Amino acid sequence: MSDTENSSAPAQTFNVAADDAHAGWRLDRFLAAHLPDFSRSRLQQLLEGGAVSLGSRKIKDANHRVKPGEDYRVAVPPAAPATPQGQDIPLKVVYEDKDLIVIDKPAGLVVHPAAGNPDGTLVNALIGHCGAANLAIGGEARPGIVHRLDTDTSGLLVAAKTERAMASLAKQFANHTIERAYHALVWGAPRDKSGRIESQIGRSPFDRKRMAVLRGGGKEARTRYTVIEKFGPADRPFASLIECRLETGRTHQIRVHLTHLGHPLIGDPQYGRTRTAPRPKNPAEEKAYSLAGGFSRQALHAFVLGFQHPSLHKTLRFEAPWPADFAELVTALRGLNRT
Hints:
It is a single chain. By secondary structure, this protein is α+β, with helices and mostly antiparallel strands. The chain has three domains: about 10-75, RNA-binding S4 domain (Structural Genomics Hypothetical 15.5 Kd Protein In mrcA-pckA Intergenic Region, Chain A); about 95-175, Pseudouridine synthase, CATH 3.30.2350; about 180-339, Pseudouridine synthase, CATH 3.30.2350.10. The chain is about 20% helix and about 30% strand. The chain contains seven helices and 15 strands. Strands 5, 6, 7, 8, 9, 10, 11, 12, 13, 14 and 15 form an eleven-stranded mixed β-sheet that branches. The chain has a four-stranded antiparallel β-sheet with strand order 1-4-2-3, with no helix packed on it.
């Protein structure tokens, strides 16, 4: 067993018998077919840790070939304490059950602990909220983060509590069957009412901290957009509200695609640019120009999240209202249409 696993608590044991149909299968594939609640990577971790045995012999090789009549024993140790510690950080919980939790993440909350953010993250908050005893992912008492939102993007995010939920949600994300929709406030307005941005996205060759649209060597990325509302003069809108729906999920995809389209997100410190506003003619214009020019984060909000529940076998769909700063900016921009 791994030295991080809790040997004092009883293990959960599974016995899996092979028949003629499994002859010659790789052991990790065989176990994955019979233990669908565990991801392939988790089963490989258990193999490496000596948790799988055939009679008195431990089998650690994932490539071990199965023979008919063999009976494998898998001893899954209880979840070890998570390295990140639970913290009492307020969360806006939209939905929760024994399998998963959906939260409306505020802008400014980092998702994962990292060198610059060792604590105070969403992971710390989820461990504190759910309790370590109710979390078991990858052999640790931690939540399963299957997708992310940038630190300064607000909105809906789902996390798994169990291996089964993690595997199901990860598969749905990989198959692009998750419904995800975002509201974005951008400078100007696209020429077309709706469209589809398709490109390759990868690390910028000029700045490795940024992502960029590449001619080759990147990952395929597809974003559908619809212009919901324009603000300002009809012939030259100052800004617009856009709905974006992801067909793929690449790092910074919406931010990169909208910048590539020529309409970066208001407030985006990495990909956006501050638009020079015309001289305000009245208080409504002055407020709108001031709020847009000084918006402190990228104006992006994940307002729809829909997926198939891993245990209930029904579709769950959630919508999150705009946070206060986003709503205030929309209200101010709408004032431009009344001047």
